[in-house]
């Protein structure tokens, strides 16, 4: 786990403290100034100022490699228990706290054609190539990374090589779109980006780790990630956290529902122009039980009151109709 860039008030401590895979979402939430359900007893992150938070957090997961040599990184920690994880909980927190500001939430895995967007991301990244067919078509257009990268042993025709180059192209296009929409970095809502790259894993499976294709791709990716982190850090006014998680392979497969960019154009919430999901938080179960049992108690109370009113004798049980009794006692 590499802390590539971070502002001064997000303090990563130097050390070899291992990070568990399932705790990475909590680590991302803490770097953004959010609270977590369980305390993270990990000394690598020092508590920062209460009223300062990064404007963005970018998490890049690189599959197929144990580690990357990224000079000038803030800190590096070993990864233990490499189980699959998502930032869905962090995305829900960002959306629930800053729903009116429509922050950017982008989760993308090009190899699986998995895309999830919320807030302003729907408008900004609408033209971002997502499917492998779209990305490969993008490689042949102007501004392609093929014209600037030293491919060396990598081929433009091999499937595994194209998958890796497609992921590099996506990183390039994300920074290009952010430079075109610089206003995103000036609002008050934090943005969240989660990218999963598996091109190296495919190259390792096809060619092997000792192959020149794998070595060249590793060097290219390290250079691209370094520039990607610097560009994002600069675009957000030196107020963004960029983390890189490298994992050889996950211990268990992750099953998750996803949607494509075509589906994101369908407005699931008619009251919102940004295709926002309906609001939901962790107190839903508590509120539901309170409302449910309160309604049951009120219904029983109404039934009991109606029964007693129906069987009431106005002459004896009510002061209002006391005068209807013919035997009035005079004192």
Description of the molecule:
The structure is a single chain. The chain is of the alpha/beta class. It has helices at 24-31, 88-97, 121-124, 132-139, 159-180, 199-207, 212-235, 284-310, 314-317, and strands spanning 2-5, 11-12, 19-20, 45-46, 56-63, 75-76, 79-80, 105-109, 114-118, 191-197, 240-247. It contains nine helices and eleven strands. The strands form three sheets. It has a seven-stranded mixed β-sheet. A two-stranded antiparallel sheet has the order 2-4. Strands 3-7 form a two-stranded parallel ribbon. α5 (159-180) packs antiparallel against α6 (199-207). The chain is elongated and about 105 Å long.
Q: What integer is the average pLDDT?
A: 81
Q: Helix content range of the residues, please?
A: 25-40%
Number of helices: 9
Morphology: elongated
> What Rg is obtained from the alpha carbons, in whole angstroms?
28 Å
What strand line-up does the widest sheet have? 6-1-11-5-10-8-9
Largest sheet: 7 strands, mixed
Structural class comes to alpha/beta
Low-confidence stretches: 257-272
Percentage of residues in DSSP E strands? 5-15%
N- to C-terminal distance: 93 Å
* Secondary-structure element pattern, one letter each: EEEHEEEEHEEHHHEHHEHH
For the secondary structure, the number of strands is 11
Give a quick rundown of the structure.
This protein is α/β, with parallel strands linked by helices. The chain has helices spanning 24-31, 88-97, 121-124, 132-139, 159-180, 199-207, 212-235, 284-310, 314-317, and strands spanning 2-5, 11-12, 19-20, 45-46, 56-63, 75-76, 79-80, 105-109, 114-118, 191-197, 240-247.
């Amino acid at each position: 786990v590499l802390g590539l860039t971070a502002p001064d008030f997000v303090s990563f401590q130097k050390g070899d403290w291992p990070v568990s895979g399932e705790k990475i979402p909590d680590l991302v939430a803490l770097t953004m100034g959010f609270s977590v359900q369980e305390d993270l007893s990990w000394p690598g992150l020092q508590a920062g100022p209460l009223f300062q938070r990064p404007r963005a957090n970018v998490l890049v997961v690189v599959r197929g490699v144990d580690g990357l040599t990224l000079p000038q990184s803030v800190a590096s920690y070993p990864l233990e228990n490499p189980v699959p994880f998502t930032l869905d909980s962090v995305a829900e927190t960002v959306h629930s706290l800053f729903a009116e500001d429509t922050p950017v939430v982008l989760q993308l895995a090009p190899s699986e054609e998995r895309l999830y967007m919320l807030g302003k991301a729907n408008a900004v990244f609408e033209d971002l190539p997502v499917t492998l067919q779209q990305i490969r078509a993008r490689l042949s257009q102007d501004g392609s990374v093929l014209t600037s990268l030293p491919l060396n042993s990598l081929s433009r025709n091999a499937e595994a090589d194209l998958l890796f180059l497609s992921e590099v192209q996506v990183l390039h296009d994300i920074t290009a779109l952010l430079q075109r929409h610089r206003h995103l970095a000036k609002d008050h809502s934090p943005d969240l980006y989660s990218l999963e790259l598996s091109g190296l894993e495919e190259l390792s499976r096809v060619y092997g780790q000792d192959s020149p294709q794998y070595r060249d791709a590793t060097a290219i990716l390290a250079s691209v990630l370094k520039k990607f982190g610097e560009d994002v850090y600069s675009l957000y006014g030196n107020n963004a956290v960029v983390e890189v998680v490298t994992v050889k392979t996950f211990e268990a497969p992750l099953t998750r529902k996803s949607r494509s960019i075509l589906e994101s154009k369908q407005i699931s919430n008619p009251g919102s122009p940004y295709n926002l999901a309906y609001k939901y938080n962790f107190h839903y179960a508590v509120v539901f039980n309170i409302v449910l049992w309160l309604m049951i108690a009120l219904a029983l109370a109404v039934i009991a009151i109606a029964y007693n009113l129906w069987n009431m004798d106005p002459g004896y049980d009510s002061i209002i109709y006391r005068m209807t009794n013919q035997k009035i006692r005079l004192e």
